[in-house]
């Protein structure tokens, strides 16, 4: 199930794999990704994949966030016991990646 919503010119797409009907988690992920616009205002789009792994008992919730910026694609993947901490870890990682990218672009 994939939903796409434009929020402040950033196209955020959320895909759920092996699960469905997680509207609160989808909304949480959308809100978390919006904070990346403060770090790097040139984000074109974001794709969030939330996956439930059956083979891992402890950290079976996977989050993958892909951020498209001009001429680059940044990706973060994390596994956790719940979707929220996995999304938070991805956002922190992408925040660092975007900050580095921003510093490299500066003259």
Distance between the termini: 42 Å
Report the structural category.
alpha+beta
| Major β-sheet annotation | 5 strands, mixed
Helix/strand order = EEHHEEEH
Beta-strand content estimate: 35-45%
- Say how many strands there are: 5
Q: Output mean pLDDT.
A: 85
Helix content: 25-40%
Helix segment tally: 3
Shape: elongated
Uncertain segments are: none
Strand order of the largest sheet: 1-2-3-4-5
Alpha carbon gyration radius: 14 Å
Record keyword descriptors for this entry:
five-stranded mixed β-sheet, elongated, alpha+beta, 107 residues
Describe this protein's structure.
- The protein is of the alpha+beta class and 107 residues long.
- Helix content is 36%, strand content 37%.
- It contains three helices and five strands.
- The chain has helices at 23-34, 36-39, 83-105; strands at residues 2-7, 10-17, 45-52, 61-69, 72-80.
- It has a five-stranded mixed β-sheet with strand order 1-2-3-4-5, covered by helices on one side.
- A hairpin with a 2-residue loop joins strand 4 (61-69) and strand 5 (72-80).
- Helix 1 (23-34) packs parallel to helix 3 (83-105).
- The model has no long low-confidence stretch (mean pLDDT 85).
